[in-house]
Amino acid sequence: MTVHIITIGDEILIGQIVDTNSAWMGTQLNLIGAAVTGISTVGDGAEDIRGALERASAQADVVLMTGGLGPTKDDITKKVIADFFGVELQFHEPTYQRLEGFFRQLGRTPTAAHRTQCMLPTNAEVLTNKMGTAPGMWFEYNGSVIVSMPGVPYEMKYLMTNEVIPRLQEKFPVQAIYHHTLMTAGEGESRIAEKLEEIEDQLPAHIKLAYLPNLGYVRVRLSGTAMDAAALQMDVEKEAGRIRERLGDLIYGQNDESLEENLGHLLRNRKLTLTTAESCTGGYVAHLITSVAGSSDYFMGSIVAYANAIKQDLLGVDPATLETHGAVSEATVREMVSGALKVMKTDLAVAISGIAGPGGGSPEKPVGTIWMAVGNATTTEVFKLQSGKDRLKNIQYAGNIALNMVRKFVLKHY
Amino acid sequence: MTVHIITIGDEILIGQIVDTNSAWMGTQLNLIGAAVTGISTVGDGAEDIRGALERASAQADVVLMTGGLGPTKDDITKKVIADFFGVELQFHEPTYQRLEGFFRQLGRTPTAAHRTQCMLPTNAEVLTNKMGTAPGMWFEYNGSVIVSMPGVPYEMKYLMTNEVIPRLQEKFPVQAIYHHTLMTAGEGESRIAEKLEEIEDQLPAHIKLAYLPNLGYVRVRLSGTAMDAAALQMDVEKEAGRIRERLGDLIYGQNDESLEENLGHLLRNRKLTLTTAESCTGGYVAHLITSVAGSSDYFMGSIVAYANAIKQDLLGVDPATLETHGAVSEATVREMVSGALKVMKTDLAVAISGIAGPGGGSPEKPVGTIWMAVGNATTTEVFKLQSGKDRLKNIQYAGNIALNMVRKFVLKHY
């Protein structure tokens, strides 16, 4: 199955928005064995959209269009599609009813612009968009498929995952593809690759290995293709087993489980509770933990102690410690852990204090110096991270490293 | 001047790399009044590159190609270009000498692959790439221009800034382009569009309006083109003024300023301090605030009170309130504000308590019900948000709405 992606929007052409949708779609399509053979970005003009649609549908089995569906006047995509198929737009009552229900919950009513959003080409199969007002549309045409989706990333992702990908898999059965992703944390991409060099060299031709690094964790993905799905699965799992053995506790999970999800399972199974005491990460670690549904089972809350006064008043950090060692120090994060355990009455606490940047660095403590501690009533373990100069990266990197520290602490002590 | 960008690379099609080059180029070209009319991404195959080059050169005055020039992929792109022009590749001695000098500094000598990099189409005007080994190439053809650059972002940026942009400006004296983006929060895209319908209908032909929505805020962008840059700026600013007047305090800023940056300026200018007391947002609002460099000037810290016990113990919420009204209620967020002000000793506090989902909803309080309050020592204002079913979206939406509430509170009371 070949796919051409068309991204619609003047804001992309003038560089106001980076097109991250196409990369995400490319990844997802690649996972189901579909080959993206081209991506076209065009502006909001009817002629450009029409031209792109004609070229793409001549070249690929599937055309996936994103953007150009907002309720405002810069929306002409639907008309272009209707013209392309030689059909009319007609009012789609079920879509309007869905919108009415949505707005009723908000105590509002749809506007005229929303009525226009319900005008759809007569040959459209409507893909219900539970994340927004513009529906997705699926068209079949001479054995090929054309799909139109909104450009808002979370709406597009919802439609791709729940509607488009399953339909494509059904319509275009391909060679079996099997992936197994091992989630690792604690080492960088090149160290992991070094450890796996021998295994990688010995991989059979139909199985490939890819490293997908991120801030504080690396996904190691095995992908195989073959005609026999059952045999393929066995082959890939065998290699996954070898990698597991080689990497040991660097592996925390599989198949895109996040560190925060994994930690959630560990804590719930052991009936442990957790709190965070955060300075430079400013609530980001708490946000990661609470982005997991059901986290209230093990997460009680946090103290974001950005100012030193809060470190003293709420976490009981000794002013003398702050004076002698500074807020970014082993001594301070140790006291933040003790204080958080006492105040929050949890089994475990993790504390982070560092210099996120871009200002605030010094020769002894440059930007990116981040101290972390995790502990319980009897033991506390510390780690000093030396990160880079980018503020947001430092916060995210520290967040993932902190979660991994808690994970290893739990596995060691419980 | 119209420009078509061609991005070459399999790694972009499979989503391993996000194409940020095109957005950067779009921004730069826009600034000199060039209109990017399309972006095509193709794989590393000769046929695909040739097809894209033919289409692009037929459509636009200028074709800018990036990628496909690495030492391994080298042959393909350059051969395609040479074939396209009907010329041969020949060894370019000055480029080789530059490479030799470059490697001499590193105590090394060029490899055979680097010799291949010096084989260039005979009609190429060489653009010296001081950031890497692959040279840029400039071609003129029937009055139009084709440029080939490496895909490595800092090499491409160097060539664009120092070679391509100045040459384009000289070759194509262009119409001026002027943008003004107004940042709004508090209403959705369609309400904003409704309010601006009359203004939009009356816009002169050379000025266009676009709506760029996100969770909790909408960017409204005016874009104009004309020969006279000074007159154009006045025209666009005049329309921006009308929109400003019409939308009033829905507008919080301009030119892509975020809500958290805007709020930071407001608080710093008024010497106010802020804290957050978060339940369902779990630290996300604190994270937004602290993602701004220098936020320690006005942000003291937060209490993430996920468990009811923490709402009682740390924020002093009355157990009777929780019993009678529930944690997701006006009464609770009001008490969270009072408690946070007392504990954190700040001028302002914002509190959020809601049902992020996917579980925990009830008929009276469905998933997406989120109460918020912002207050100071004397006044507290509340708002009930009815959001949707997606956990992460609810958290992000509530976060932006909360920041906007604080912004409006500050503007009203200080």
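The radius of gyration of chain A is 26 Å.
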